[in-house]
Amino acid sequence: MSSTAPAPSAVVPFLAQHRVFGLLTAAERATLASQCTATPLEAGAVAVAPGQWNQRLVLIVQGSLDLGDPDLNWRTRLQAGEWCGAGLSPAHLLDDWQAVAATPAQIIFVPASVLVGLCEAHPELAVFFPSLPLTGADASAGVPPAGEQSDTVSLLSTSIRTLIKREPITVSPSTSIRAAATLMCERRVSSVLLVEQGHLFGLVTDRDLRNRVVAQGLDIDRPVADIATLAPMTVNANSPAFEALLLMARHNIHHMPVMEGPRIVGMITATDLTEQHSTSAVYLAGDIYKQTTVEGLARISGRVKHLQRSLAAADASAYSTGHIITAITDALTTRLIHLAEATLGPAPIDYVWVAAGSQARSEQTAKSDQDNCLILDDTYDESRHGDYFRAFSRFVCDGLAACGYIHCPGEMMAMTDKWRQPRQRWVRYFDQWVNTPEPMALMLTCVFFDLRAIHGKSELLDTLRHDVLQRTRGNSLFLAHMVGNALKHRPPLGLFGNITVIRSGENARTIDLKHSGIVPIVDLARVYALAGAVAAVNTHDRLEQAGHSGEVSDQGARDLRDAQEFLGKLRIAHQARQIARGQAPDNFLALEELSNLERSHLKSAFAVVQGLQNVLAQRYGGGRLG
């Protein structure tokens, strides 16, 4: 092979045949060729050194390159026509990689700055460069601009108090509708609070004026209390701002009074938050409640992946991301229930639709199936009510499947007859599982102890949960079996503390972040909750309460929360990268995606989990009973 670098004119034919650069016009390719550097390499020459991955894109014209990670002692070969580097390889995660010519080769270097300009001029090309940090108006095709990221982080980390823009606008409940509307117009606000003797009485919004007054032809001299939302949902001024986001998303509301104890300090609205990128969750939930068909919900559900990607780019915590993504699942579920009742008629008896698993714990990501059940009032009669609830649960579960939440492989769904039962049958289920903890019973306990009411009469679940916790608290025989079941999920650490990867199959050379990392922490928190009658469902909240109750040391609880957060963020970032590449998100992370520092933290997180698993094993005899 010639050791002479080809002239720019010789680069143009290669660019014309390229699957991406071939989309450009001939003039644009000629301009691009003049900005490239064509270089010959002898076998063994370094094409890209560690730390250079974000500087330039490498196109292989002839020959081959070996990409390798010395720390992992492996390499992969790229042939002529392939590419690597800026925009394709996440440099901040692959600092130790290098590319070396495996044979004599001809390569083309494209500076990262040239790629950025190209993608800003042609936004449709940005999809091919998911890790390229765009800076202009089209940055949303890749990574959000820095200012947008900081705004989102602010929403997730600061208090609600900082988002209040004005003093609360109040009227008395006896004020006329006309006077309230005039005040809203004068003060240029979209809502007023009804206050009597210093106490919050209700809330009236411009939507109420439109829907309850104008549309109904109501007398505008009537008291404004006649059209108010009484006892409105409120939020504490010192709470994290993302809590307001969750409440708005879950309940499809756009106005929320802010309280400091009994005192009203202001109002927060969805419009107040429009500068914050992650409030798309509020509008996404609003769009969900506007849909009148399952097909409409299915179309909207595709935006959940983009929401997760935006949250990951904004460096939102795993705790916040889980709550926000789950709030959208809750909204989809609730709207499907509304559509089911509109189709089948109102339910003949009280019920509560209950989420199980990760949805119940508010720990969902864009990769989730569905786990749910139905608790019916004890007046349930199969002959009179069976057909209705059979059709009702099938409608909702099939609707969730259409929205991307696949049917549970183990059929743990409300559409399965066994998991659609009156409350007293659920009492007997839990009695049997606690008193006869054989393997299947333990597995079912793991699924159905993590429950949260989504829609309906929540008291049916609340009383059931209270009864179950009283049975499990201090029940050493049952807890020993639960510990033994939990110890089946072990972190992937070898004899000398090294991370062990999956050896074969389609996920070879990866680790399963869910089952080898996150599930063991969820299992530990569940055991602590069962042992201490902790009512919390979210894993982070369970660990925090367990630390206070003495089921685990304060330090152990903090370490587990930190490990869960670290593993959760790795999982969310990994899935965000897959979404950006147009791939289906999964839980299998290749170690080469991580920097040395991240690998060190990963080992530490696994070691924390392993250590606390060993503590429980000793406390309960290793979970083995003679």
Structural class: alpha+beta
Which range does the strand content fall in?
Answer: 15-25%
- How would you sum up the major sheet? 4 strands, antiparallel
General shape: globular
CATH overall fold name of the largest domain? Beta Polymerase, domain 2
Rg is 28 Å
Averaged pLDDT:
85
Spatial sequence of strands, sheet with the most strands: 1-8-3-6
CATH superfamily of the largest domain: Beta Polymerase, domain 2
- Please mark out the parts with pLDDT under 50 across 5 or more consecutive residues, or reply none: 1-6, 135-154, 274-279
Please tally the helical runs, counting DSSP H or I stretches of 4 or more residues. 21
Highest-level CATH class of the largest domain: Alpha Beta
CATH architecture identity of the largest domain: 2-Layer Sandwich
Overall number of domains: 4
What percentage of residues falls in helices of 4 or more residues?
40-55%
- How many beta strands in the DSSP annotation? 21
Q: Strands, helices and their partners?
A:
Blueprint: H1 8-17, H2 26-35, E1 37-41, E2 46-48, E3 56-62, E4 64-69, E5 74-79, E6 83-85, E7 98-101, E8 105-111, H3 112-121, H4 146-157, E9 170-171, H5 177-187, E10 191-196, E11 199-205, H6 206-214, E12 229-230, E13 235-236, H7 241-251, E14 255-260, E15 263-269, H8 280-290, H9 294-301, H10 303-313, H11 318-344, E16 351-356, H12 357-360, E17 372-376, H13 382-402, E18 420-422, H14 423-435, H15 439-448, E19 451-456, H16 459-472, H17 476-486, E20 510-512, H18 513-532, H19 539-549, H20 554-580, E21 588-590, H21 596-619
Parallel strand pairs: 9-10, 13-14, 17-18
Antiparallel strand pairs: 1-8, 2-7, 3-6, 3-8, 4-5, 4-7, 10-11, 11-12, 14-15, 16-17, 16-19, 20-21
Helix pairs in contact: 1-2, 7-8, 7-11, 8-11, 10-20, 11-13, 14-15, 14-16, 17-18, 18-19, 18-20, 18-21, 19-20, 20-21
